[in-house]
Structure formats: structure tokens, C-alpha cells
Amino acid sequence: xxxxxxxxxxxxxxxxxxxxxxxxxxxxxxxxxxxxxxxxxxxxxxxxxxxxxxxxxxxxxxxxxxxxxxxxxxxxxxxxxxxxxxxxxxxxxxxxxxxxxxxxxxxxxxxxxxxxxxxxxxxxxxxxxxxxxxxxxxxxxxxxxxxxxxxxxxxxxxxxxxxxxxxxxxxxxxxxxxxxxxxxxxxxxxxxxxxxxxxxxxxxxxxxxxxxxxxxxxxxxxxxxxxxxxxxxxxxxxxxxxxxxxxxxxxxxxxxxxxxxxxxxxxxxxxxxxxxxxxxxxxxxxxxxxxxxxxxxxxxxxxxxxxxxxxxxxxxxxxxxxxxxxxxxxxxxxxxxxxxxxxxxxxxxxxxxxxxxxxxxxxxxxxxxxxxxxxxxxxxxxxxxxxxxxxxxxxxxxxxxxxxxxxxxxxxxxxxxxxxxxxxxxxxxxxxxxxxxxxxxxxxxxxxxxxxx
Length: 453
Prior knowledge:
The chain has about 450 residues and is of the alpha+beta class. The chain has 12 helices and 11 strands. It is about 40% helix and about 20% strand.
């Protein structure tokens, strides 16, 4: 019978690989038991300990598995907290003086038209025409050429600068108000057909970086009265440590993170107004005269009013449904100042004083006028502010996870090193030693046959 030496060689190599595989499984099992006996993790030592009954091993295996499950569940909760709410807004321990806050911009809107140069009664039939040629141009409302000086939205005022700043700093209460405005209204110029049901003025107080715009929230100022505004502000500052988070996670924008087409300084109000202008133009083909735009040929007429109102409703519904990130994406600025005021009103008797001169010509002149006075000042020299800071950072996440792992499993950093060591270096060294022993046995087996030859 012929002997096939090649077949024996192949068969021998296959058997050798099978034996090597079985041997490595046994070695891996021994290393796993060695790890269980020597690890610092609680409970595993009882599972691999010799002399322990099977019931005891099952008990400790179940207990260890339950501990791992509870620990994983708690770490999942920690992860959700870190991922969903890493930033907190809290009360700042430092009171902010008014000198670090800009004095607000003030916009006064008369309730009635006080110039007959534009005759509402004669021109109201032409409301279907180009409204841009009906809009008065006698006054320049927002055409100031003055640029910012020693102030920025993010950093505030420069520490060493106290004068020649723009916008102007607030100041502490003194003998005189910070702002005094005297309004004189000629009653003979009033057009009774234009908003005859209302009188007085609407007063809007906003941040200097915001574009003046009308809203439902305003202060009423009546004729022949002194309206004293005691200002206060709500300030929110944001620490630099939250810059690493996305704007949606910290719920605010730092300067340079959100581009606006019509405004150099980002504020939430400016963003909303630009968003309203963009959507109105896209849906209606025109914009309101009070919206930012780059051409006056696309000013909406009264015919477009229903479309404009529908755009406002769409944006309002989107914000209510919390999809503003995909619509306007107008988050607050990370450093904001919002103003509020308390109003004290008294009679302004300057008209009686002027008519007390017993001059009939002056009396007949002054009786056609009404006088109103606006005073504005900060109520207190310092106010409590808010601060947006990191609530749950990477260090806090690691500390919480480490506490849970230590409580349920006795896990530490060295335990992690142990696991990596047994799965990599220890196992590799064991397999290498086994392979070297296998080679030595081959040499010993082959030597006698060589001598016999």
C-alpha cells in the first residue's frame, strides 16, 4: 500500500490548527477565571473561587448581573441629562451697576396725526396706489451716522472708558433725570378723521441694538401730564465655557454665530423682524414699509394686508409648535439686556403757568397747545443679573459615572486598566508563550528521526 506523504502533511497541519484552537479556548477560559479571582470588581471573585457551591455561584452571578443592569440604567439617565440640559441660567452673585449697561433707546409714537400736511381725508381714496409715495419723509428716524465707541454686545464697555462712549452709559440717580423730553402738540393741526378715538403717545423702551418697532407691549403717555419712568433691567450674561456647546443646547447665539442680512448686531428682535420681512416677501411678493428691505418698489399696499397677516400667523404657529429652529431660528443673544419701567404720572401745569401772564393774545395762542413731559431715570444704582453657565460638563459626567460604577460594582480607573490588560497584553502574552512551547515540542519530536537517518 502506497503512503501519501503530502496527504499526511496536510492532515497533520489541520489537526495542529484544531488543537491550537482548542488550546487557546482553554487558555482564554483560564485567563477569564484568573481575572475573576484577582479583579477588584465586587462579586466576581466568588464566582471563580474554588470550593464554592454552584448555588452560591449562581447567586453571585445574578447579583452581579443585576448590579451591572442598574448601573447601566443610571448611567443612561446621567447621559440624557448631560446631553439635553448641560447649561443652566442662575442668579449671578454680583450686582451689576447701571454704568455697565447702555441707556435704552426710546421711541415715541403719537396716537393721532399731528400734521395736516398729509390730509388723510383727501388721500384715503388713493390707498390702492404705491404706498411708498404716501409715507412721509420729513424726519430721519434711524439714519444716524454715529458708530459704536468703546462698547460691544459681547464685552460691554471698556473698563477704563467713562466718557465719549456710544451708546451712552447709564448713570446712578442724581438730582436730575437722565432723559427729559418735552412734547408740544398743536391741536389745530390734528386730523380728527385719523385715529380720532385715541390720544396721547405710545412709548417703547428697547435695547440700543434693537431696531425700533411697534408691539403690543408699550407704555402710555397722556397729554398735559408728566410721565416719570423708573427704569430697571434684566441682564443675562453667558460664560465662555459654554461656547463648546451648540447654540441649540445653550439656547443663545454668541456674536458672529448668526448672520443677519440687514443688521450688523444680532439680537432676537432684529432676527425676528428680518425673518418676518423675508417670509413676507417670499409669500406676498412685497414687504411692509416698517420692515427692513433694500428696495422701495416692493412695499405692500392695503391689498396685501391679508397675506401679511397670514405670514404673521404662520410664524406664530411655528413658534408655538416649537419648530423655530427650522423656520426663523431666532434664539436670544448670549449677552442680553431687557428693560422694564415703572411709571408715575402727574399733571403737567406749565400751560397754566404760561397763561397766567394775563396777556389775552398769549392766552389765545397757548390754549391751542397741549404740553407733555417725559422723564426717565434708573430706579436703583445696581440690579440683580442672571448668568448662563455650564451645569453639567464632561468632568461632572465622568464623576457621576464613576460614582455609580463604584457604588454598584466597586469599579475604578484601575479596574478599567485591569480589563484592558487581561483582554490585550495578558492574553497576547499567553498565546505567544503557548506558540513558543508548541515550536519547542516540534523540535524535540523531529530530532530523534534525524539522528536515526
